[in-house]
Amino acid sequence: MSPGSITRPTADLRGVLCVALLLACAGGVVAGEPVIRVYPSRVVLEGAADRQRVIVQAVDPDGRTLDLTSRARLVPSLPGRVRIVDGMLEPLVDGTLELEVSVDGRRVQVPVTVRDAAAKAPVRFGLDVMPVLTKGGCNSGSCHGASRGQRGFRLSVFGFDPAGDYFRITREFVGRRIDLARPASSLLLTKPLEQVVHGGGQRFDSDSEMYTVLLKWLEQGAPVDGKDVPRVTRLEVFPSEVVLSGAGAGGQPAAGDSHRLVVRAHYDDGTDRDVTGLSVFTSTNTAAALVSFAGVVSGQRRGESFVMVMYGEHNVGLPVIVVPSGPAAKFPALPVANRVDELVHAKLRKLRVVPSKLCDDGTFLRRVYLDTIGLLPEPSEYARFVADQRPDKRKRLVDTLLGRPEFTDLWVMKWAELLQVRNVKGGFFGWLRKRYLANVPMDRMVRELLTAEGGFFRDPPAQYFRQVGKPKILAENVAQVFMGTRIQCAQCHNHPFDRWTMNDYYAFAAFFAQLGSKRNWEDTREQIVFNTGSGEVRHPIDDRVMAPRFLGGKVPKLAGRDRRAVLAEWLTDAGNPWFARNLANIAWAQYFGRGIVDEVDDVRLSNPPSNPELLDFLADRLVADGYDFRKLIRTITLSHAYQRATEPTPSNLRDHRNFSRAEFRRLRAEVLHDCLCQATGVPSRLGGFPLGTRAVQLPVASMSSEFLTTFGRSNRETVCSCEVDVQPNLSQALHLINGSTTWGKIERGRVLEQLMTRHDDPGDVIDALFVRCLSRRPTKDERTRLLAAEVAATDRAEIYQDLFWALLNSKEFLFNH
Amino acid sequence: MRRRGWAATVVSTRQTLVAIGLLLVVSAPVLAQSEARAVVSAAPRYLQRGTVTSVRLNCAWLPSAEDILFYSPGLACRSLTLLEDTDTLPPDGREYLVSIEVASDCRIGQHRFRVRDRAGLSTLHTLYVGPLPRLAEQAQPTTFEDPQRVSLDSTVAGYIGEVGQIDWYRVEARKGQRLNVDVQAVRMAQRLFDAHVTILDAKARVLAESDDTGLGLHDPITGLVVPADGSYMIAIRESGFGNEGSYKGPRGRYLLHVGTFPRPLAAIAEGGLSGKPVRLTFLGDPLGTFTQLMPMPPGPDASVFGTSTVTPMVAGQWAPTPHPIRINSLQTVVETEPNDNWRTSPASKQAAPAAFAGVISRRGDIDTFRFRATKGQRLVIQVYARRLYSRLDSVVEVRRVRDGTSVAGGDDPPRRHRTSLFAYNSHHAGWFAQDAYTEMTANEAGDYVVLVSDHLKKGGVDYHYRVEVTRVEPKLTLFVRRDPPYWRGTPGQSVSVPRGNRYAVIVENQRLNCPAGPLEVSARGLPPGVTLEAPRISSAKVPMLFTATDDAVRAASLVRFVSSDPKGRPLVTQFEQTVFYGLNPPSYAFFGVDSERLAVAVAEDYPVSLELEPIAAPLVQEGETVLRIRTRVGPNQRRPVRLSMLYKPTGISAELSEKVAEGEHVVEMRLEANRETSPGRWPIAVVSREATQLRGGGVSTQLRTLEVLPAFLDLVLTRAILARGKTVPLKAQLEQKVEFRGKAIARLEGLPKGVTAKPVAIDASDESVTFQVTATGAAPVGLHKTLSCRVSIPWQRPDGQLAAVVHRLGQGGQLRILEAADVPGQQEQPQP
Fold first, then answer.
1. Which residues of chain A have pLDDT under 70?
2. What ipTM, to 2 d.p.?
3. What span, in angstroms and rounded, lies between the C-alpha atoms of B215 and B390?
4. Which of A423, A425, A700 is facing B194, going by the closest CB pair?
């Protein structure tokens, strides 16, 4: 969309209100009037150049938001003090006044203050020009922000180095890029206007704000910024909530399908400014919502998007929900098991998505077994559970499973991946396991880990610091594993889709700058790590020493302490915004196949949680329960959200984000391996570990195992468990069909022999095999056809072997559902 | 690989293994040592005190073993019988059955020995002496449900033979008893087996587990006070289930000591005058700390490198493994807590030199000790902790009490102070590497304080230490270089001198604080009839020559070295020898067995004898000389005799004129020196080794002094061009450095075929020399860069005889040969 072209709202509020009223009456619900909101709630105009757009929003009883700005009348109480041009307030005379916003007979007052109306503020490079370069895409990675620039002109990508950019624009090639005698002839302007050939095409018009800013700056003589230039401290976007109607049938725009956004920057001198025209807008889900160059968001299809706003080096985001156009269907009154369900339902209600029904006992049993202990329920456990008539049997089952040692195995494996535990010797794996078995709270465990000192073998958690001497890598790992955020981008430039700047990155890495190590000469395999008390991290651009600063937090007082200990205290503090949320998210992802933030280690502004309230609740619970993982998992598994069936409803067919139904999840390599061993009763020899060692119990990931490799096990070489691959592929299918694992185990096992000895009735054998593999009895049709095949067979055992093989090869076996 | 295959056959099945009682076959050393006179294995290696045990020795290249040389008292070889060869042995393998009597007061611990064959000494091997009766491991695999039952207070010799194997043992114990488990694996001086032990109750609940320890190094030691009457399980496995990298397989042997014996984890020695009783405090036993007054064995042979061992005994029960302690004449003060604050720590009456002992008992603990020093006193402050099998990674600091000034401090010792072994194995630091070391000079008389702490501020019952504050003293360390490659066992570290013959070794040395000048070295305790000829030590390597008389009796002894400085004052002299075990190729070992005496034996007559004639002329840089060796080779010599220099000073190469044949001959060895050879007087010898040096057999000539002089002159050849059939002058520039009398003869060498130049005489005043070079019609056309000039200069020896000092100079001189028509100036004139 070209600059300045704004999709005009076409909403017909009266129509919407009428429909809403009718629906409310029909549903027996007390109808409410739409709520009118005006943004911003208070306006301060400072200086002659200051501007502020006001937007007006209505929220209808269904929660849908309508942009009424174009239809609203703005009347200042003292007309001489401000001027209103196309909805934009401009200062005239100093003083205060009230702005009366009226729409459809409703009135809202907005206080306005005008200061220094006559003061003309100069255009500043860092404050004004740099955002233009970002907005214009000039410093993006594909243009002049590329590491080698474009056509000899290089800018720092996304503007992480204003001083360097100033030099390159004004000094690097004197007389070429800017012409202070004839500012409008400067290449800096003629190129983006495409008055001369420009590989990047036209970036803006000569009547745009962007052009004006650059021209004014050049006319001022392209001055360098002094030290008094205010810095942006915070960015905010209005409105705070957007729920749009999607495109109507045939893709035609429906009423109320777009909404204008306004961006305001706050500065460290206490002032603020409307920077909408210099902000970059992007939508994370363009299938659901589009956002224009000027910041008008429009709904497309039912779903969610997140609009990212970037101004200079700052980012802010806004969730946008798109619901079907037309009247809201009635959301059923659903029972809830706990607070998790209330929060999930609240979100589904907003999306008008009706969740699936609850799954049956057999499905729940299998699902919760696989998710909690990584094993199949034994046939006896199946029989007992299905026969159990007590209403709280699911709760009892969860309690039992959480007490089993296999629960520990599964989570130790998970953490071994995240912490990249790769050696048996050294006992890092054993240390994790002991901590889990003793139910040591996660915060304490992480504190122990992050402050570990000593030799890798005698002080196992010290192995976490095997990258000693590389504070950047340690900082990245800690951020990713314990805060769920990836800061790697900020090593070289400010993060384009998140808030992290290079300052944040290097200040955070400084926590690991004083880690030292020495070789243990008694056992050269062992390294000893310790706090040296000296060493700093320097910023690569200006080589200044970076004082340790928490990511998104303050500069702490260190007072000679081990920096890692200070970091660990901050990280595991109950008030830390990352830690508990991240842990809760990891736990949730284990049970749903995707996190509330997904991927779990990719928390960023542009990837917000699908249900922030739910994530907050889980995090709060985790903190309140003293970081007891078992309690959190109990809450999760007992929720109806976890216990939903995989069969979709018409409205949740496309929903994979909001936990309205259970997802099909292929069993991860280790669990699948253990289930195969369990179903066939034949354990595998894994590396040098005692026979019977399960794949989830392996302290190492390096030993060769064709099965585990084929099914995408983690080799624990990255902190994100990125190697874990649960996508099905052909080689997996071939391995199961032709490989020795399945058939070999069936042949070597004594399962069939025992079943045939125990049961005379072929139907009982078939039932037992189904229960053993799939935790369900065969359907009537399956049973009939299998019995017919059994009768027709010459070799009864062969039929059972084939059935066993088929069951182990079935999708139903390979997937958790 | 033949030998490895043999070993593999032996251990092919567990049953076979147990049946033949071959309880230590280690495949890698077998292969490595198969070239040497070696003890490949001993079975059993564990001997109980006060018993007579038959030990099977599996040997290589020891066809006629006669006796066993033990390094420490308490063991005696009562009989030694050659067993009939079996099919499993390779051609040069032998098995002996040795009856060994172990005295009831024999020191508990590792005992070193070598087998003395008629031909000489074997490699070093060890036997372990302990107090408990030995049990064999049962043949069939054990499980938790079906363990091997063992009685308390016994020692089981076990073997983990498969990846993932766990050995299970069950003991019955009563409430309140100690249940101590001490597993020896790495400490058994064998290939690396990193054991892990777990104690469980009958319900499989883990009560205690251990992997690496302080006292046990990489071996596990653990114990508990039995909580209730009943059965207890002990599980032993490889710590990584055998999955940890290529150099360390899953297999390994261990000794499991299990019982109610005391098993403290640390010993602190108080007092400490050699030969007098010492009060020892033992810490870390499950039933708590106890003290004992123990007599220290007298004599220098009771310790190695100043360290001895003690074994605690409580109520008649001895611990199965000992504690290393330092024994010397320093008065030792044991810490009294609280002593963290050096300002308030009690004043000490100790004047340096002194020793202090204690334990860093808790996290953050600092121990402080005061001592007095006189003005100008130079002191060494060193901690013994890891060397005493403590867990302490020590840091030491010395402050002056008067004003708190820090005068010295140290963490890990500088490399030169760790051990001389670093000279040739930089990766082997053993437990020396982390013991703090510092030196100080007291710039005023008064009280000083030593502060000891852990590098990581850790502490515990087994973080014990001893600090020794001693004067800076000159010390000479000697060692016999092992034959490379270093990971191959121990050959070459002993001396076997044939009767009526000579044997030479290179002794390397490291001088610490020694005065400049050559040092005298002599030996004490040589076998009767053996003498040592040791040149004075003035460089890092010197040869030592052992000579046995014709009538010397075949015997072996352990020899100490003593040395003195140029003024005749005795020096602290230490001979160091460490045999490495648990090798992690290429050059790192997990365990070492130390000796400070060199084993020397008289062997049977050797069929080769060598005489080196006096060296006729000195060797000059860029020159050559000839050694003349009279050889006598008897008819019984099986293998060809190969002569070589015992060692070659830097820059010298040697070439033998002909092969050594049977009978009496004179062979010549031409020595060439390059420009880098250092002038000096080098004691040299020519030796004969058997087919491979590793076997250690051989004889030597007497020592002769090779004099290396700087070159007498320098010579640069100019380039010359000549056509076939022509003669041109070729000039060489001379720079004479030494005056000589008479005429020297210069001769062009390296001329291509068909080119000749007559020798030219020069005298001491010539500045150049010109050769007339003639090319025949057959001379090869082209550029030849092979020219050099041999200058033979007359030189008067000290005895008045004239000799010729030969130089080879002007290497790479160039000569271009052209076709006759190509010579410039002789081309046909162009037609007008």
1. 1-32, 247-256, 328, 424-426
2. 0.73
3. 6
4. A425
